[in-house]
Amino acid sequence: MKIHEFTMAPNPRRVRIFLAEKGITVPYEQVDLMTAKNRAPEFLAKNPMGGVPVLELDDGSFIAESVAICRYFETLHPEPRLMGGPDAKDAATVEMWQRRMEFQILGTVAGCFRNTSPFFKGRITQVAEWGEVCRRDALKRLEWLDSELANRQFVAGDRFTIADITALVGIDFGRMVDIKIAPGLKNLERWYDAVSSRPSAKA
Amino acid sequence: MKIHEFTMAPNPRRVRIFLAEKGITVPYEQVDLMTAKNRAPEFLAKNPMGGVPVLELDDGSFIAESVAICRYFETLHPEPRLMGGPDAKDAATVEMWQRRMEFQILGTVAGCFRNTSPFFKGRITQVAEWGEVCRRDALKRLEWLDSELANRQFVAGDRFTIADITALVGIDFGRMVDIKIAPGLKNLERWYDAVSSRPSAKA
């Protein structure tokens, strides 16, 4: 078993933090996105979408998509529960917050990065105006997240979950395009200090 | 328990099909998106993102996000399994395909619709050029999905799953912006005929 990833990219970090929180060690193999190794036929055979990370299982099959890789390890090693459950309401609540963090925070930051960063110039069709819509949305969503965090410790409730991982990775990725927690968002800052100082954040 | 939804919108249909496949009946209450009832304070108290569907539980709590709502019912009523499992590899594989269908098919179609349709004019900042990037991506992804379906019956393998639901809803939503299965995509057409003729597709 190994995970094909690229340390500098945001999605692989989601899985690394997740595994660190679980205390699971998996060998990593780097796929150099800077030289577009993820667009080479050998890698596309592993994941036709070209994204990292990809989990390679011992039977030769591949699991792509960060959250699906997390699900694999959560199912095998449920404790500590990072994806909620075992009851239905808790599982659904954590999944709701994971998705909100993915679409509203990480997704908007990624939309800004992909459409405005020189890294993607010539690799994809960039629409700078859309990148700015994403930036504005990301900043608005950070304000909203601050208000949500007024009454609880973590994104999905009173314990650390995958939703915190997605939000942390999204916010840190935001630095690449100057999307930052605005001054005065005290709840978000308190949360950010707590999650970014966990040992897993360095994974 | 009830589900706040809007019959004409794509995301509520995902949940309706999912529940129909499970044989579960839940009362629905309509939220008129045409008159922006989903942006009114009463609805934003249920889901600050303003999206439908939202599951209201008997304890007064709310679960938003279609896939999280599906997770709620899958956890309570695992059979027939639409989200994979119980083993880790199967759960992860179905989640991978669900996400691919969500980002590559439904997401690209929605990106085109939101940025080009008169429905959203004045409601959100539309970037028509981005809408056309989404359209082109959606059409490319349908070609790719056709190739994936050459060797198996359904999107995630040999049985119907939530990944088929997301793909079906995405493709049907595509009609709104003239994104259609191109002539000659025989595998995709075979799959589409099979899934759209299931009784659940009418839910």
- Rg of chain A, Å, rounded: 17 Å
Q: Looking at the structure, what is the overall shape of chain A?
A: globular
| Low-confidence parts of chain A | none
Number of beta strands of chain A: 4
The major beta sheet of chain A can be summarized as: 4 strands, mixed
Q: Helix and strand string of chain A, N-terminal first?
A: EHEHEEHHHHH
Mean pLDDT of chain A: 97
Determine the fraction of residues in helical runs of chain A and give it as a percent range: 40-55%
- How are the strands of the largest sheet of chain A arranged? 2-1-3-4
Oligomeric description of these chains: homodimer
Number of helices of chain A: 7
Strand content of chain A: 5-15%
Q: Could you say which structural class the secondary elements and strand pairing of chain A correspond to?
A: alpha+beta
Most extensive interface, residues per chain?
A-B, 38 and 38 residues
**Intertermini distance of chain A:** 18 Å
Characterization of the model:
The structure is a homodimer. Chain A is of the alpha+beta class. Chain A is about 50% helix and about 5% strand. Chain A has seven helices and four strands; from the N terminus they run βαβαββααααα. Chain A has helices at about 10-20, 40-45, 65-75, 90-115, 130-150, 160-175, 185-195; strands at about 1-5, 30, 55, 60-65. Chain A has a four-stranded mixed sheet, with helices on one face. In chain A, helix 1 runs antiparallel to helix 6, helix 4 runs parallel beside helix 6 (about 160-175) and helix 5 (about 130-150) crosses helix 7 (about 185-195). The longest helix of chain A has 29 residues, at about 90-115. The two termini of chain A are about 20 Å apart.
